[in-house]
Write a structure and sequence with these properties.
Blueprint: H1 2-9, H2 20-44, E1 47-48, E2 53-54, H3 55-63, H4 65-78, H5 94-104, H6 118-122
Antiparallel strand pairs: 1-2
C-alpha cells in the first residue's frame, strides 16, 4: 500500500527513477480501486455502459492520470529511457508491446543521467 501512496505523494514528479515494484504495485492498487469503484457505480446506478465507466470511476481516473504518467516516465528513466518513449504507445499493438517490455525489465544497475539507482538507495 505504501507504494501506491508514495506515487500519489509524488503527484507530478516526472524526474528521477522508479523501481519496478513502485510502478507495478501502483498499477495493481489502481486496478483494484477502479474495480471497486465500478462495482459501486453499478450498485448506485451511475454506471454508463456507453461510456464504459461510472461517475466515481471517471473521477478516479482523472485524479490518477497525472500520477500514472509521472510514475511511468520515472519507470522509463530507470531503464535509461526518456519519458518521450511513452509516445511509442500510440502505435497500435506494437507500441504497447514495446512499452510493456520496457516496464517489466529490471533497473539499470548503475547510476544514469536521471539519478542514482533506487535499489542502491533503498538498501
Amino acid at each position: 500500500m505504501h507504494w501506491y501512496l508514495d506515487v500519489l505523494k509524488k503527484y507530478a514528479v516526472f524526474s528521477g527513477r522508479a523501481r519496478r515494484s513502485e510502478y507495478w504495485y501502483f498499477v495493481l492498487f489502481s486496478a483494484i480501486v477502479s474495480l471497486l469503484l465500478a462495482i459501486l457505480d453499478g450498485v448506485v446506478g451511475s454506471f454508463s455502459s456507453g461510456a464504459g465507466m461510472g461517475v466515481l470511476g471517471g473521477l478516479y481516473s482523472l485524479g490518477v492520470l497525472i500520477p500514472s504518467l509521472a510514475v511511468t516516465v520515472r519507470r522509463l528513466h530507470d531503464r535509461s529511457r526518456s519519458g518521450w518513449w511513452l509516445l511509442i504507445g500510440l502505435i497500435p499493438l506494437i507500441g504497447s508491446i514495446v512499452i510493456l517490455i520496457f516496464l517489466v525489465q529490471d533497473s539499470v544497475p548503475e547510476d544514469n543521467s536521471y539519478g542514482a539507482n533506487p535499489k542502491a538507495i533503498d538498501v
